[in-house]
Amino acid sequence: MEDGKSWRVLVINPGSTSTKIGLFEGEYSVFEKTVDHDAAELAAFPGISDQLPYRRTTIMEALAENGVDLLSIDAFVGRGGGLLPLVGGTYAIDETILDHARRGANGVQHPAQLGSQIAHELAVEAGGKPAFVVNPPDTDELCDEARMTGVEGVYRHVHLHALNLKETAIRHAASLGRAYDECNFVVCHIGGGISVSAHDHGRMADGNDIVGGEGPMTPTRCGSMPVAEVLNYLEGGHSLDEARALTLKRGGFVSLCGTSDAREVIVRAAAGDASARRAWDAMTYQVCKWIGSMACVLGGKVDGILLGGGMVHSDELVRAIEERCGWIAPVTAYPGEFELEAMAAGACRVLDGVEQPLTYSGMPVWTGFSN
């Protein structure tokens, strides 16, 4: 790092109906903004990548409103959607990343694909500045045992809130005066989706597949269920599409309480609504059960249980997890998320020379067992 230099990093995190942007100088936020998009305007675009000019224009308008000159920015970071499973880290955006992001090589069409594309375009416009993606959504560092199921040819895959999980762990390790790769943590993201993960000396060795319907129930997801009960559900006249919807958008609190708003559920539970209380307590119980399973992955050698995500603003939730899991390791709450900060921090670690930028191979990190 240059003496006294605080890198100016612009981060871009596109979501379904908004784009979050932030400008950081080192670890400090200069400004952050959520640019909302009209759903009808987005629906007019035939594909995700077709939204790029529209979203880029709204970002440039936000930068202009805040008096930000692109030439003053040292690096650009975009959310790395559309990529194939890869080891976590900070990747330099290249033509392979852009190609996979444009077409959604992982088979998931999500606005996060636009992150790397917009970051690349702005970096070029700024005079060829560096552009990165950090711990993309398909970060996969599973140990071999975690990939196995009891069916030949069927394997577990992982989809987690890798960006926030890893940043939470990195920050907590620093608070202990240690490096991330010197520690073992169970790290949770508890929000609209719930990830519970085991971090073994800097490697996210196991966790639940939130896209695959695995893990605790969430406000919109049913979570893990016995296979026999799923079969009974289908044989009872429900369609495959209905079953898939339960794994992503119509399960959990939506199915049990008729709402996806966790704040409403906890208010109703506190007011004596029995169904809301059962749903909230069951979700909390399942989170704790998964924390216990991740502690076993780490052989019981756990330096901390870390909680992030929007629901961690609930003192009741944090207390419940402390009561059930505090015997494993100290529980520390980090309410909310560090996604924008995590993206900027990844770029700064590379610019400082603390980490080397990785190159995306374009191949899945795991393609099967050799024998």
UniProtKB/TrEMBL annotation:
<keyword id="KW-0963">Cytoplasm</keyword>
<dbReference type="InterPro" id="IPR043129">
    <property type="entry name" value="ATPase_NBD"/>
</dbReference>
<dbReference type="InterPro" id="IPR000890">
    <property type="entry name" value="Aliphatic_acid_kin_short-chain"/>
</dbReference>
<keyword id="KW-0547">Nucleotide-binding</keyword>
<keyword id="KW-0067">ATP-binding</keyword>
<keyword id="KW-0808">Transferase</keyword>
<keyword id="KW-0418">Kinase</keyword>
<dbReference type="GO" id="GO:0047761">
    <property type="term" value="F:butyrate kinase activity"/>
</dbReference>
<comment type="similarity">
    <text>Belongs to the acetokinase family.</text>
</comment>
<dbReference type="GO" id="GO:0005524">
    <property type="term" value="F:ATP binding"/>
</dbReference>
<protein>
    <recommendedName>
        <fullName>Probable butyrate kinase</fullName>
        <ecNumber>2.7.2.7</ecNumber>
    </recommendedName>
</protein>
<dbReference type="InterPro" id="IPR023865">
    <property type="entry name" value="Aliphatic_acid_kinase_CS"/>
</dbReference>
<dbReference type="GO" id="GO:0005737">
    <property type="term" value="C:cytoplasm"/>
</dbReference>
<dbReference type="InterPro" id="IPR011245">
    <property type="entry name" value="Butyrate_kin"/>
</dbReference>
<dbReference type="GO" id="GO:0008776">
    <property type="term" value="F:acetate kinase activity"/>
</dbReference>
<dbReference type="Pfam" id="PF00871">
    <property type="entry name" value="Acetate_kinase"/>
</dbReference>
<dbReference type="GO" id="GO:0006083">
    <property type="term" value="P:acetate metabolic process"/>
</dbReference>
